[in-house]
Amino acid sequence: xxxxxxxxxxxxxxxxxxxxxxxxxxxxxxxxxxxxxxxxxxxxxxxxxxxxxxxxxxxxxxxxxxxxxxxxxxxxxxxxxxxxxxxxxxxxxxxxxxxxxxxxxxxxxxxxxxxxxxxxxxxxxxxxxxxxxxxxxxxxxxxxxxxxxxxxxxxxxxxxxxxxxxxxxxxxxxxxxxxxxxxxxxxxxxxxxxxxxxxxxxxxxxxxxxxxxxxxxxxxxxxxxxxxxxxxxxxxxxxxxxxxxxxxxxxxxxxxxxxxxxxxxxxxxxxxxxxxxxxxxxxxxxxxxxxxxxxxxxxxxxxxxxxxxxxxxxxxxxxxxx
Length: 322
Hints:
The chain is an alpha/beta fold. It is built from 14 helices and 13 strands. Helix content is 43%, strand content 20%.
């Protein structure tokens, strides 16, 4: 015979379990998104979170802050976002990661396009990040070397190669070292030209003219992504064949790009956000490396530049823009 105390205890246990489940179901989490520009591919971030049970208007609030290619706004925007005390912070690149890291060592930070998290010191190692930061790396140092090789194949006559970089982007100095090494191996002469903001781009291209630059490598950054249309116009106006790190630069009129698939990085970062929201610690989540890369060529731009793309390069392309 079951005693009254057992029945009451069992009923109470069921009630508490259901109450705890209801609390979890209705708990609203806040995600702070600190990225460059509000591009369409961010819908993949929301879609992936929805697939994992996090729905805006129900149990999820996403606070967005857009840098719009101006790294000088990073500190202000990061402080505004951290002040909201979100459950998780998402940083698109090393620039945003550094701005957030300087303000908090407790709120989890997930990056998705970090070029060199170990080299910059944002994580202790790829396998064991060790702090409040982890995410998906885009391997910029390796990508930069590959970009240099692609540009050399596409424009083999060019000997003086301009390298447009951003002194405010933490990951660019390591990339410059890789490019210098690649140039030495290929017997080419790199001309490093820095630009911190959109207003410095005209001056950067004027320097390229003075330095008799014959082709250009543009290291990917929030600035070069934001100003992709203008960069394409400047390259065409100065008759400079250029390689970029993002497909979107080529879609805007650039010649060729080699780099990671941004949308794939975004989706994988959203999965990490879900894991952290469910209790995983960034210190224990290994930094994942990019797995999808794409080579894109704009054939219309090649024609406008009077350039015949080598068949060896075209056959490797993932996409040709006619």
